[in-house]
Specification:
Layout (H helix, E strand, L loop, with lengths): L7 E5 L7 E9 L8 E5 L5 E4 L5 E4 L6
Antiparallel strand pairs: 1-2, 1-5, 2-3, 3-4
């Protein structure tokens, strides 16, 4: 998985009714865009250290630059 600051992570809910979580990557702690990341979750603005699992996708920011 590769990401840059400004990209978003999308995490599918593991349990019925939990829905999709979306957060903005605010810091990349790994080398060359690899995890772990610091993510600001859209639902509540909470920032957390995040290591993506198999249920995670990266939505790359378009139009940057």
């Amino acid at each position: 998985m590769h990401a840059v600051v400004g990209d978003h992570v999308l995490v599918r809910g593991r349990n019925l009714g939990t829905g999709l979580r979306r957060g903005e990557i605010v810091e990349v702690r790994g080398t060359d865009g690899n995890p772990p990341y610091v993510v600001r979750w859209e639902r509540d603005g909470h920032e957390a250290f995040f290591v993506p699992g198999p249920d995670t996708a990266v939505e790359h920011e378009t139009g940057a630059g």
